[in-house]
Amino acid sequence: MTPPPLDLSRPTPRGRHPSATPSSRVRFAHPSERLFAWLLDTHDVAWEYEPVEFVLAWSADGAPTSGFRPDFWLPAHQCFVELTTADQRLVTRKNAKIRRLRELYSEISLLVVYQRDFLALLSANGLEFSATSAA
């Protein structure tokens, strides 16, 4: 059975306190990740934070030299999500890793959420975001 499409435009009618959500129990690398996890919790979308790292390059002796760890795994949707809310000079480097991931692991479903999309998602949920560091 295919899960319904991921729709974060309308919160579920639940009055759960933020401290009782899974997002309150995880140490995130960036505030945008915590906010995204909270949105997923609010919409009852199950998620895992950085559950796997994909090797992107190996040394001559076969040891991993580069990897990529997507921010979220959405099990019901069989999809990884990568938040890219950083400024353009940092996004370029991340995009190169994403291209390499898609070359090596074509079977992987990866949704990349860029800053404008993230801000639109927040706005649709009545939220704002002002952090400027990389994610």
Describe this structure in words.
By secondary structure, the chain is an alpha+beta fold. It has one domain: Endonuclease, Chain A. It has helices at residues 31-42, 88-104, 115-124, and strands at 48-49, 54-58, 64-68, 72-74, 79-84, 110-114. The longest helix has 17 residues, at 88-104.
Give keywords.
alpha+beta, four-stranded mixed β-sheet, 135 residues, two-stranded antiparallel sheet
Main beta-sheet annotation: 4 strands, mixed
Unreliable spans are 9-19
Structural class determined from secondary elements: alpha+beta
Helix share bin: 25-40%
Structure summary:
With 135 residues, the chain is an alpha+beta fold. The protein is built from three helices and six strands, in the order H-E-E-E-E-E-H-E-H.
Describe the SSE topology.
Elements: H1 31-42, E1 48-49, E2 54-58, E3 64-68, E4 72-74, E5 79-84, H2 88-104, E6 110-114, H3 115-124
Parallel strand pairs: 5-6
Antiparallel strand pairs: 1-4, 2-3, 4-5
